[in-house]
Amino acid sequence: MFFNTQSLNELEQRYRAHLINSLSGFKSANLLGTVDKHGQENLSIVSSVFHLGANPALFGMIIRPHSVPRHSFENLLETGFYTLNHVNEDIVTQAHQTSARYEKEQSEFTETGLTAEYLNDFKAPFVKESEIKMGLKLVSEQVIEVNQTHLVIGELIALHCPDSVIQPDGFIDIEAANTVAITGLDSYHTTCKINRLSYAKPDSKPKPLVTL
Amino acid sequence: MFFNTQSLNELEQRYRAHLINSLSGFKSANLLGTVDKHGQENLSIVSSVFHLGANPALFGMIIRPHSVPRHSFENLLETGFYTLNHVNEDIVTQAHQTSARYEKEQSEFTETGLTAEYLNDFKAPFVKESEIKMGLKLVSEQVIEVNQTHLVIGELIALHCPDSVIQPDGFIDIEAANTVAITGLDSYHTTCKINRLSYAKPDSKPKPLVTL
């Protein structure tokens, strides 16, 4: 099948949303946890979190202001803190359900049965059922001019994960933590490791890494 | 295991890179194809492509100016066009090898054995071995102030994919196209579908979607 600008433009809106959302490749599955100044908690699945840098440890996230995560977005702007919690296989249905358009006074924790957990003195709620939990401080928020989406950037300031999934070189085996991947708007996937490959050099071929 | 800002800062640089790069979740695996004005082709694996919007169809990508994709970055700025080609299971090793620091006058197509393919009148090379191939026009490029990375945004203007992987509602089954996912800096994964889930509504529970 071939699509050009014209045939893409002519697609029915929902068809187009499914098609285009499938194209970037596999996406991360995170639950965005926030709380407002009055203690009202919010939880929202996001598939747009991406790595921005390791030093400092920065993550980007794209939010549409009129999308379901808008309450979470308002909360993180208000408090300056949020959590990102990996979605694992056991909580896929509950995580997906957080994308329903609940009212702001409804907590998706309560509505979906996921458990808010406050760890150390971090100001936003983590998801107890998640194995890999990140606490972030808001660093910047900017509008992407071309389509008026918002780019939220946060710095990792707290990380909780099981000892067993950290390999000797620092690599975290998120597959071993049952983290899932997303495609399109609604498809969830477990994974199966092919290999870690050695650092690529021009004069040799990559070899499978043995890290045990 | 718990890390706070101080213990994250104290990590050895390479360990830290592996750790932090593992945390965003599963990442997309794309080959970025470009050519400069003199016909010199370049190909580079990127794990930072993300969905930005469906209408218009926009994709973002993070590039470090001193990273391996720098030649590709220079080319796409020069010509205004680039391709993104899904990495599938059959070409994982070759795709990974494009991350070696070849000289600018070396083509990663030649060096890795992947095949440059020009389709219709699109100005940048696609990867013949890839099942899902996107041609993009550069829309904007901006520096992310907090760590001086570059955010490249492109609009999809050409899409090639097998008829068989497009479902009736527009969803593209990239798993059926053998597209792989990446974690960390060097780990490649195939996937296994759990389910597509129905559109979430506050008063009902998500159900598996049947799309056949």
TrEMBL record, chains A, B:
Any one Pfam family match given in the protein's UniProt record, by short name: Flavin_Reduct
Domain Flavin reductase like: 26-164
Keywords: Flavoprotein, FMN
Cofactor(s) the record lists: FMN
SUPFAM superfamilies per UniProt: FMN-binding split barrel (SSF50475)
Organism per entry: Pseudoalteromonas phenolica
UniProt-recorded Gene Ontology molecular function terms: FMN binding; oxidoreductase activity, acting on the CH-NH group of donors, NAD or NADP as acceptor
InterPro entries, sorted: Flavin_Rdtase-like_dom, Split_barrel_FMN-bd
Full protein name: Flavin oxidoreductase
Highest taxon in the source lineage: Bacteria
Family the entry assigns: Belongs to the flavoredoxin family.
